[in-house]
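Per your request, structure below.
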């Protein structure tokens, strides 16, 4: 396991005082939550279809932000990576790794197919 990035969900004043951790590996993203009852969610990167990030004024003040992900994973269709440091840089790294995994696994989404179909119709 080669860990590329890890962080904790940050709370008051941007401090990592929560029991939620995020970990990015080459092929998977893990979200671990809980103190008494631990839970671990995992999503394969090639399944993530769309990512975006946002920063509220309060988040900007404390240097954190949230990344929103949409995936084709059955148990994690939509999820957030909440209050992490350097959200824009993490989003870009995540986006790059997602594309690498799609290329490696030769996974193509219907969006690309639909665009190709639209181009064919324009030529007729």
């Amino acid at each position: 396991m080669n860990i590329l990035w890890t962080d904790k969900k940050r709370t008051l004043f941007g401090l990592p005082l929560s029991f939620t951790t995020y970990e990015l590996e080459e092929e998977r993203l893990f979200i671990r939550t809980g103190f008494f009852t631990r839970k671990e969610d995992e999503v394969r990167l090639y399944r993530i279809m769309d990512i975006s990030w946002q920063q509220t004024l309060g988040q900007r003040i404390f240097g954190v932000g949230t990344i929103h992900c949409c995936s084709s994973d059955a148990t994690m269709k939509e999820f957030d990576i909440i209050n992490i440091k350097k959200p824009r840089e993490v989003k870009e790294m995540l986006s790059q790794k997602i594309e690498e995994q799609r290329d490696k696994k030769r996974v193509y989404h219907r969006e690309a197919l639909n665009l190709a179909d639209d181009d064919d119709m324009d030529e007729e």
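Residues 112-116 have pLDDT under 50 and may be disordered.

Regards,
D.
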